[in-house]
Amino acid sequence: MDDERFARLSERQKAYLRLAAEHRTSHDIAFTTGAASSRAVDKQLGLAKKRIGGTSRFEAARRFVEYEARVEGFDPVDVPIAPSRGTFWPLPLPLPSRDRPINMLTRQQVLAWGTIIAVGAPVGITVAAMVIVSITLLLGIHLG
Hints:
Helix 2 crosses helix 4 (38-52). The chain has helices at 2-7, 11-21, 26-33, 38-52, 57-72, 107-139. The protein is an all-alpha fold. It folds into 2 domains: 2-72, Arc Repressor Mutant, subunit A (Orthogonal Bundle); 86-144, no CATH class.
């Protein structure tokens, strides 16, 4: 009976349920998967919830993940200890590229870039001003 309910799920619904099991929001799931909107994610999760028979999206996601773990039978070496959310270091550039047209930085990476910019910009401006003053003093140029 369970096999039939889970077999009727679409690949999109399965992917959304996996991410919902990680307690991700609909907006985050839409951003991660490139879905049209968070409402589209909510609709697919609602349909999946009805097919599985859960009372909430998180219960449906939990049931699906438990079912998938029983069915696929991973080798313990292949099962990640914690969900992978990308590496923190080396810090990827926060710019779109051909490989990654959408910015996929984690919250920690965004915080790191914000700190780098907040500290680096004033320090850079101060150093540039000091270099300009030093050069003008060495060359004997009077700015006043």
